[in-house]
Amino acid sequence: MTTSTTQVQPPAEDKLDFKKIFPVFLIVLIDLLGLTIIIPLLPLYAASFQADAAVIGVLGATYPVMQFIGAPILGRLSDRYGRKPVLVISQIGTLIGFLVLGFANTLPLLFLARAIDGLSGANISTAQAIITDSTTEKTRTQGLGLLGAAFGLGFIVGPIIAFVSLSLSGNNYQVPAFVAAAFSLISILLTVRLLPETNPPEKRGTAAKKSAVSFGAMFHALALPGVGLLLVLMFAQQIAFGGLEQILSLFTLSRLGMNASNNSMLFVYVGLIVVLVQGYFIGKWSRVLGDRRLIYLGLAALTIGLLLTALVPDQAVPWYSREAVAAELSADAAQPGETPVTQDVSIQLPAQENTGWAGIAVLLVAMIPAAIGGGILQPAINSLITKRVDPAERGGILGISTSFLSAANALAPLIGGVLFQAGGATTPFFLWAVLMGTLFVVALRTIK
């Protein structure tokens, strides 16, 4: 009987404690709602200040560039001073960024708002460190996956809130910014009230003696045995999956004739798959496969998804109207008297005569492995990274990981846009599929 009892105990320890994780999940979700409310309207907001397409692209890159700078700083500071105070301070910065955005009356203020928000938005590395503190090695992948599920939910609910607030305000771009600020304030209050400190002084160890961040630390992390390749994988998979997300609407417009509302539904579909993967399946898969095989699965799935996307038939959706889509693009919700956002962007629309279900059917199938791969890789890679460094270094290494992720987010739309323009709609997806396939083979040979 004694032996039987001791054999029953370990499985209980292998289960994720949702009571510990739920406050972090809720806080991150509400924080992300602010971000995802802003994302759909930013190009139009900039266009209302006569920004052209190039300036709008730079504005879009401002947030991830500043996040790239801020993530390791906040991660290291959370190792030194504790998770909770650093998280609260970063959330206050996000709140200020949204308020600046709401009151903005010039284009430079938009850039300032995105810079403040990007620097503060690096608090995701602190949230990852809290998850790491609150999980065991066997439950960490599932815990980090729940953060990904919060992202998925945020990218489903946030654009809906933006749509409603714009509709109720007569397309006043300031209103969604203030709504985002309200969600940011709620996240601060929840952090203060609900979140316990998971890194007390006695556990802060040697990290307190290190500098907050340096590029030398990032290069040092790349040189760490067993960690460097994982950081490269984190960067590369986000170039591919982040690039897919960034230019998918352009691809579906030129290949399938899908307008903005069609693409909104497509992104909801992808978001639902990511939520299911990161909120439910990844926990089961990680216990069965382990992080290493889960990374293999993610790379293989993303490769297949990207390849299938490149092979989507050149056939517009059955409800396509070339005249209606062209009219929508020429108006594109610009403010009265202002230049439309798409005026400087030349997009080849499909012919009206070639419509059918084949193109959209293949695309919907392609999004399943693509979303599964994208949903698996970030939490699996981060989980394996944390198991290969000293516990006192987890916040810092997760901050560095987030910096690589942010750098990829800044580069992905630039790379995807250039490949799309130079080689056609399918080129970026083919090349990203080749990249992921190559890294899959490399991972099989080197990740032990």
Task: Characterize this entry briefly.
The protein is mainly alpha-helical. The protein has helices at residues 2-13, 18-38, 42-47, 53-81, 83-103, 107-120, 124-133, 140-168, 174-194, 215-223, 228-256, 260-310, 322-331, 358-386, 394-423, 427-446. The model is unreliable at 1-10, 206-213 and 331-345 (pLDDT under 50).
Supply the CATH architecture. Up-down Bundle
Runs in which pLDDT lies below 50 for 5 or more consecutive residues are 1-10, 206-213, 331-345
- Rg calc: 22 Å
Structural class: mainly alpha
Order of helices and strands: HHHHHHHHHHHHHHHH
Number of domains: 1
N- to C-terminal separation? 38 Å
How many beta strands in the DSSP annotation?
A: 0
Layout: helices, strands, pairs:
Elements: H1 2-13, H2 18-38, H3 42-47, H4 53-81, H5 83-103, H6 107-120, H7 124-133, H8 140-168, H9 174-194, H10 215-223, H11 228-256, H12 260-310, H13 322-331, H14 358-386, H15 394-423, H16 427-446
Helix pairs in contact: 2-8, 2-9, 4-5, 4-6, 4-7, 4-15, 5-6, 5-7, 5-9, 7-8, 7-15, 8-12, 8-14, 11-12, 11-14, 11-15, 11-16, 12-14, 12-16
